[in-house]
Amino acid sequence: DSGVTQTPKHLITATGQRVTLRCSPRSGDLSVYWYQQSLDQGLQFLIQYYNGEERAKGNILERFSAQQFPDLHSELNLSSLELGDSALYFCASSPTGVFYEQYFGPGTRLTVT
Amino acid sequence: AQSVTQLGSHVSVSEGALVLLRCNYSSSVPPYLFWYVQYPNQGLQLLLKYTTGATLVKGINGFEAEFKKSETSFHLTKPSAHMSDAAEYFCAVSHAGNNRKLIWGLGTSLAVNP
Fold first, then answer.
1. CA-CA distance, B89 to B44, in Å (whole number)?
2. What 3-state DSSP class applies to B85?
3. Which of A6-45 are b and which e, b meaning 16 or more Cβ less than 10 Å from the residue's Cβ?
4. I need a surface site. Which of A76, A81, B37, B109 has the fewest CB within 10 A?
């Protein structure tokens, strides 16, 4: 158990819908990262937050957005969903300090039908 | 810019054989290097990391990796493969001042045959 929690574990929804994925980082970790993992694209970095502020953006679509709240939990919002958005979405957190290892949650499996 | 190349998207070994998963990186500054493992239907788990100091690092489950600056490599090895080692392995690189961002390889799927 990494200490990073994600809800829900599974999500099935229809095209055009909007969903929110939730992540709670390890106690004390200020950095949160979101990743998308699919069979055809592999592990893709989406976005990073540090103590409530956006720090880096990766291959995140405009239909997707995220935020980190004062209690440090984070939410990833996916809207106007398409079949191609079906994937595993991982959240990771990173401890404050010099060395940047990340600790991953168990993921949310999103299926868009 | 940093980058990571994992040679071989699929590696197959026999149980008890040596496991060697290759990772080469590109970095203009001293790198921090990581290996992660992902078992089926699970999140990624940190196997080991190199930051500074000893270039041979030992991780969990009997894995180790050696940082070779001259070869820009960080290959992952295990002397004797177990069936339970079958998983996806990812190499990643970062460096100081990089906003804590990891650059990921595409992963290597390890199959262990009985």
1. 9
2. helix
3. beeeebebeeeeebebebbbbeebbbbbbbbbeeeebbeb
4. B109
B34 touches chain A (CB under 8 A): yes
In a mutagenesis test of the B interface, which of A34, A43, A51 is the best target, namely the one with the most B β-carbons within 10 Å?
A43
Token pair of A59 as six digits: 């291959």
Answer yes or no: do B104 and A94 touch at CB < 8 A.
no
A42: left (phi over 0), alpha (psi -120 to 50) or beta: left
CA dist B37 and B78 (Å) reads 13
Helix residue ranges, H only, A1-113: none
Cβ contact A108:A9 at 8 Å: yes
SS3 letters across B26-59:
ECCCCCEEEEEEECCCCCEEEEEEECCCCCEEEC
The secondary element (H helix, E strand) that includes residue A20 is strand A19-24
* Cβ–Cβ under 8 Å, residues B63 and B41: no
DSSP type of residue A113: -
Model confidence over B62-111: pLDDT tens digits? 999 999 999 999 999 999 999 999 999 999 998 766 666 788 899 999 99
pLDDT in tens, B26-69: 987 888 999 999 998 889 999 999 988 889 999 999 999 999 99
CB distance A47 to A60 below 8 Å? yes
CB pairs under 8 A between A and B: 55
CB B13 within 8 A of CB B113: yes
